[in-house]
Amino acid sequence: WHHPRVVRAGRSVCCLLQPGTSGQAPLTAAMISVAQLEDLAEDKAKTFTKFLLTQPPAANGEDLLAIWEEVYDEEMQKVQIQTLNGPCDDETNRVFPYEKLQAVMKDGGNWKWPRMWQRFDEIERRGSAYREGEKLHFNMPNKNPNIVEQRVLIVGGGPIGLRTAIEMAMAGHRVVIFEKRRELKDTSGELTQLGFTNRINRPHMWPFVRNDLAKLNGKDFMSREASYPVFTEPDTSSIGIDELQCLLLKNALLLGVDFRLGVGYDNAKIRTDPKNMMPTWEVECSYDDRSAAKYGKGKGKNVEVFDCLIGCDGPRSTVRDTQSKHFGNIEKRKFMDCVGIVANIRKVNRKRLKELGFEFGQEPGDMNRTKMVFKDFFKQITDKADADIENLIYYKASHHNYTILVPKRADLIKHGLSGKVYHFAAGRDKAADDARSEEKNKLKKYCRSVLQAAGIPIDEQAENGGFVGAP
Prior knowledge:
Layout: E1 5-8, E2 11-14, E3 16-17, H1 34-53, H2 61-71, H3 74-77, E4 79-80, E5 82-83, E6 86-87, H4 97-105, H5 113-122, E7 151-155, H6 159-169, E8 174-179, E9 184-185, E10 191-193, H7 207-215, H8 218-221, H9 224-231, H10 241-254, E11 258-261, E12 263-272, E13 279-287, H11 289-295, E14 300-306, E15 308-311, H12 318-322, H13 324-327, E16 341-346, H14 350-355, E17 367-370, H15 375-385, E18 389-396, E19 400-407, H16 409-414, H17 424-427, H18 435-453
Parallel strand pairs: 7-8, 7-15, 8-11
Antiparallel strand pairs: 1-2, 3-4, 5-6, 9-10, 12-13, 13-14, 16-19, 17-18, 18-19
Helix pairs in contact: 1-2, 6-10, 15-18
């Protein structure tokens, strides 16, 4: 028996195992054989590789969470590493999960992993997450040495909630995310409720956002195809919401964020400790069957206490609705005030592109055009498609192409479209004799004619008339 040691980023790391019963004889603390460590490293490297490769459209956030449970299981959680402040422990000397994984797996036989670990080391630490004397700080002081560690609840596992959680974790706080949107399917396999990453919209990427994602291992955590429109198209840089969420989720998990899927926020009250007058949030929340079993909670209503409450639950925020006294009344989005059509279209292969008249079988470049500037372009759309469009956006993604059309409301009516907004179940209704089905077909025809007039490739002979299938 001995203590295998590795050195990284100026930090001496000693891989230890606390007593455990993970199918083997209990290991004495600070004692592990070289062979056992090698077996553990090999096993974890395989699972971790699978974790890193998991991404849309083949997988979603729920798949990622399931694999993470295999990566950072009870055995890995019991691993201790030696820091400048002594052996780590979860109460007084916490380390991030990625630090334990690196101590065990090292480079995993992958040339990208040292770069990945280094990027995590380079994320700025503050408060209790900052350890005096570590070389990764480059002799820079702790910017916020007086941060008091808080138990933080973030409601909502979208991009904003995940990025906020990462920032809170790097300040030394204990962060929990509640995300209630679990994907549900009926007995036939049809989706009846969207999960928290069932979105393929593509927001524009501003340079500072792109640079931030690069620091968070964006180029390594995303496939080459998914990375291309994010990091190599500066003028029209874009990213799929699902791709963004999975990228941020990987970072959040590796930085110790407790992501609780199937848990919904209901309400909260401020309670003040009569002895020290410290306020806390007494949060009422609901656990579904699976989350209740996983976290040892009662199904349905529960009450938990947090020091800080952050609402990242979208424009119809329940946190804001229930805490207007503290957060104020903010006007909600009026979705019906604007008209916009998002059309996700299938990729067309090179041979078919040539048949459709695209020279050399190549897709056109990305577009972000407005009628005020590109008058001739929009006149062409009017002449060919009899459509009055104000703006048009076309982004090439890794597995589909993303377009936004902004027509005038009167133009939709002229083409027999009502402009109604249908809820999720109604929007997916496939009844052939339903008036909604007729309107869907009209909408597809309208979009297809506009895109063809704009010189954007769409193959109406492909499945679903050239549009992507429903989630």
